[in-house]
Design goal:
The chain is mainly β. Helices cover about 10% and strands about 55% of the residues. An 8-stranded antiparallel β-barrel has the order 1-3-4-5-6-7-8-9. It starts with a helix and ends in a 6-residue tail after the last strand.
Length: about 180
Amino acid sequence: MNTYRICLVLTLLLIGQALYAQIRVEPSIGASFPLNRTTGTNIPFPSIGCKVKYCLADLPLAFGAEGAMNIAYRKSGAIKANGEAEDWALRNLSLLAVAEWHFFNNQKVRLFLGLGAGLALRHQTLPGFSTYDVPALGVCGSPTVGIYFRDRVFFALDTYITEKNFNTIGLRVGYSFGKRK
C-alpha cells in the first residue's frame, strides 16, 4: 500500500511542475489483456500508468519516461482441494523511455504514434502449480497508438512486450497535465 501512496505523491508533484514548464504529466488507467493463448481463459485486468514527457515547441515530437503496471490474468478453470480457484496472475511493472510523433499537431483532435523501450520487473502468482523460472528483470518494448481530444483527454492502445507469458495489450484513458508549447 505504501508503494501506491509514494507513486501518487510523485505523480502529484510532477503535475504541479508540469503546470509551469514545457513538460506534460499523463496519468492513465485502463484494462490489459494477455496476448498469448495458454490453458485457461484470458480475463481483462486493470492497468495503471503515468507518462512524463517533454514536448518540442516547433516539432510534433515528444520524449520522456513512462511507468506502467499491467497484469496478464487467466482463469484456469481448475479448483484446488480446498475449493479455491487456481487462477494465474502475471504482473509486469515497466519503466520505459518513450518517444511520440503527433499528427495534426495544432488541431482539436490529434493522433499519435509512440514507441517505448526499457526494463520490466516481472512477478508471477500461479497457485497450486510449481512455478517455472522467470528472470525477475528483463527488457520491455511498447508500441502505442492513440488519440488526444482538445489536447487533454487521450485514449491509447498499447502493447507491452517482454517475456512470453507477461505480454499484454491494453486500452487506456488518461488526462494530460501541463503545457505543450
